[in-house]
Amino acid sequence: MIEEKLITKNLEVENLYKIEIYQKYNGYQALKKALLQMTPNQILEEVKKANLRGRGGAGFPAGVKWSFVPKHTNKPKYLCVNADEGEPGTFKDRFIMTNNPHLLIEGIIITCYCVGIHTAYIYIRGEYEHVAQRLEGAVQEAYQNNYLGKNILNTGFSLNLYIHRGAGAYICGEETALLESLEGKRGHPRLKPPFPASVGLYKCPTVINNVETLSNIPVIVLKGGEWFVKKGLPKDGGTRLFSISGSIKNPGIYELPTGTNLKDIIFNYAGGLKEGRELKAVIPGGLSAPILKADEIDIPMDCESIMNINSMLGSSAIIVIDNETPIIHVLKIIVNFYAHESCGQCTPCRNGTWWMKNIVKRIYEGHGKLRDIDNLLRIADNIYGKTLCPMGDAASMAVQAVLEKFREEIENYIQGRK
Amino acid sequence: MIEIKLNGKKHKIKENLTILEAAKQVGVEIPHLCYHPALEPEGSCRMCLVEIKGVPKLQLACSTQVKDGMEIETDNQRVREAREAVLEFLLASHPLDCPICDKAGECKLQDYYYKYGLFEDYFEEEKPKRCKLVRIAPNLILDQERCILCTRCVRFLKEITKTEELGVFNRGNESFISIYEQELIENNYSGNLVDICPVGAITDVDFRFKMRNWFLEKKKTICPICSRGCNINIHFLPNSFPFKKDKRVFRITSESNPKINGFWICNLGRYNYHYIDNDRILIPLKKDRELKEISWKEFYEQVGNKIKVLIQRKREERIGVIVNLSLTNEEYEVLNVFFNQCLVGSEIAVFGRKKGKSDGFLLTEERNPNTKGAKKFGFIEKKIDIKNFFNKKELVILFGNEIIEHYSIQLLSEILSNVKTKILIATTKGTLINLFDYILPSTVVPEKEGSFTNCQGIIQKFKRVLEPLGKSKSELEILTSLAQKSGIWKSFLLERRIS
Hints:
Radius of gyration of chain A: 22 Å
Distance between the termini of chain B: 45 Å
Helix content of chain A: 40-55%
Oligomer: heterodimer
Radius of gyration of chain B: 28 Å
Distance between the termini of chain A: 43 Å
Strand order of the largest sheet of chain B: 15-14-20-19-18-16-17
Structural class of chain B: alpha+beta
């Protein structure tokens, strides 16, 4: 069966990132339909019907998010596109922005028209220098073709789009830290409430969406929400870009319907593990998603199914771990990452991740004690639910899952047994 | 008014309060470190997490608003465990140098640990090492190891002084607070950072290692440095301190008063306490070729007699009084009765400290604490012909040394030389001493009680905080006793009763 591609369609077309090629393949038709034939409300209804859940990690329905923005306000409204893509294992947004930047831009313009926004920012992670350049070129082309700027397509609607490059902090992918960073401040998450939909960028109502989420908007406008839902699951519409990495034959990006079986993705689509390796574990949604054991992967990849087995779909980044990888190594990478990326604002995350890192380092270097495992679990539990932003919970859950599911292996490692 | 349930008890409270504020109003303490009532809530220390019925996660008491019908638990098992977790995290990166820390004894982390920290210790790693001596201002030293990153200091400099000299550098557990490059904090409110730092991270060069704070007694008084009348606390060694001491007062901190100074005082007021213990005139002196001690009684009798004689000769105009602007309202009242009503004809001039520059916040241009109060009793500083004023005067009483800011010592020496009896009532020794016949020790503000009227017209009463040093007496006492010996006692009492 050949699945229909919504985002990676036409990918084989050379130079798709150029506006004339993009337009040749139906590009900006959705924008024309949206601006010339639809009211903002009609678009919002279609997006709601599409059950488009956010692709950044939290999986919040995009249409619902947009409807939280006050309709009548004398403040400007903003759209911030979260292109910080910092979740380890995730590289789908880069893929879209590199190969099909106009799809994202088209989605941005329609979204802004729908919500009544006249200024949008793409916050792109600092390391994506080439991607930012390509995006910049695409934005210039869009301006030249009057898809951006004043009086777009003579409809009276105006929109300015700016690209802002981050400075290399994972936490700036957290939406409120992103706003702080965009305002030129230190990237520290804000207290919620108030939520960005009412008090966001420069204290104005703000929509923050992931790159992939917005890239789905053109096709929803063209084909309708109901059509879109059918490409995925009733409560979780459309396709997803799965970033597959690790010990896998064919790593890369796979666009598949939401709800595709994880086992299928690994063994059929991505060709299974590397030669001679066996599956040991899978991290299903980026590093923050609690690890799954090999016998847990017969599961549909959608927000709810993964949540039911106490993990998360996150950014749909699948990291495949084989039997030759010691789990203590995985644990060390996890705790080092969170200790390194903790912004340091709130106590439990700042000190807890640092503490866990030190204990795991000690275990890794052969000085671990059996009681360290319980202490790590205790620390993780002490972080959980007490931090200012979701990063503490992510660190906590990722560590807890590894310890609980591979306790025996770690105990053996501590005691010097293979 | 709304009704909330706090730890099972119902309370009626005002709307628009945070849980922390509401709890405080009804006498329930919720521990907190980063929260400060004058600053925007930061929510970073996580000490104030409480449980709200129906909300799955623990919520911040410092930033969550109370709502009608809200049921809050501030001290159940779950909340206590969360609090212990936060305390444990904080202490994991905090050095245990309490024995040599100036903040010990008044440290919030120490206090909370004492109260909520009786739990098993799991920490086996090495504590992080950080710089323990960073000069962040001429008057302040930062210990980055003790810092718990509550960012009260950063927010104070951002929100209150708007000078932003401090920032957070690096991230995660390697975060630290520091100044930018070598730019020291040079604003007039930097001393407040010591008051608001909940731990011993920011210490005052002036107080560092000088005295354990638990030996000090703390009492409220009014700052006399300008006309704002900021409320301050004087920290002093009480008489019960068993060992030898060179001085009584070791520091001044701010006392909050929302109508006047909020939570803050300026550095001028904070570090201006040496006048209390240093260079004080301790005993009444009389010049008899050289300065010799006399008793107060002798002074009252001798000067009282001189006044009596002048009254008998109807020569009240030969009496000149120079008043400063640092006396209490009660003293101005008595001065008014004494000289304007009982010694009709005597001449009065007013000299306060010269005006300074206002800093646009608390420190006012007017540098006398009771100019408004003095004005109410008719004591207003005016330009006068000083030579003319002293001409033909037989008896001159000078309150305070302020006149030296207005005239040179040579000029004063010249014009005073013709005056027969010259009396100086002052707190500190100065160059003027040599020009006078009687030198009398008066008390400083913390040694008196009375009231000042500040620049906003607010009358602030204050109590005696310290015992008068040596044989010093307040101007009020001196004037009252002098009135008894000057033959004006009856009219003095009568006028006082009337006014």
